[in-house]
Amino acid sequence: MNPFPPGADEDTPVFVISVAAQLSGLHAQTLRGYDRQGLVSPGRTSGGGRRYSMRDIALLREVQRLSQEDGVNLAGIKRIIELENEVDALRDRIAQLTEEIAAAYAAAEQAAAAIHRSYRNDLVPVRQQTALVVWRPQPRR
Q: Taking 80 as the threshold, does the pLDDT of residue 113 lie above it?
């Protein structure tokens, strides 16, 4: 069962800053600071208001955990987030290339099969005869 409204998913920005602060366990000012520093970038309304998605809430919780439990400073957290995003992008690219390779391989197999089906069996005449060859070694000198 999808816990989101119809047409929405975990990336849909739906929560105002006060709700996001409550869901993440952080103060609204902290969320504003994280936004200014580029740690968590919520969506924006046409009027400029912040709207947070469930993915943003999870990221806010991770930023808090890294900061409080692991003692990572905000610059380190930002770098960790950047690297995780890069790894995700690379995984997506690998999956895309794997699909392209599989499609190319399947197309090559189909082309080879079509070529083999097009062979004519009567192109090379074969004479049906039998020959006997006797080998006689030369005497040694």
A: yes
> Per-residue pLDDT tens for 35-69?
999 999 999 999 989 999 999 999 999 999 999 99
Q: What is the mean pLDDT of the chain?
A: 90
What is the C-alpha to C-alpha distance for residues 81 and 96, in angstroms, rounded to an integer?
A: 23
Which 3-state string (H, E, C) describes 72-137? Answer: CCHHHHHHHHHHHHHHHHHHHHHHHHHHHHHHHHHHHHHHHHHHHHHCCCCCCCCCCCCCCCCCCC
Contact at 8 Å (CB) between 84 and 92?
no
Listed as own residue / partner, the contacts of 33-42 with beta carbons closer than 8 Å and 24 or more positions apart are 34/60, 34/63, 37/74, 37/78, 38/78, 39/63, 39/74, 39/77, 39/78, 39/81, 42/13, 42/17
Residue appearing with tokens 């987030």? 81
Show the DSSP H helices in 44-73 as ranges: 54-68
Higher-confidence residue: 15 or 4?
15
Unique residue bearing structure tokens 């099969």: 113
The partner residues of 43 in beta bridges, in order of sequence, read 51
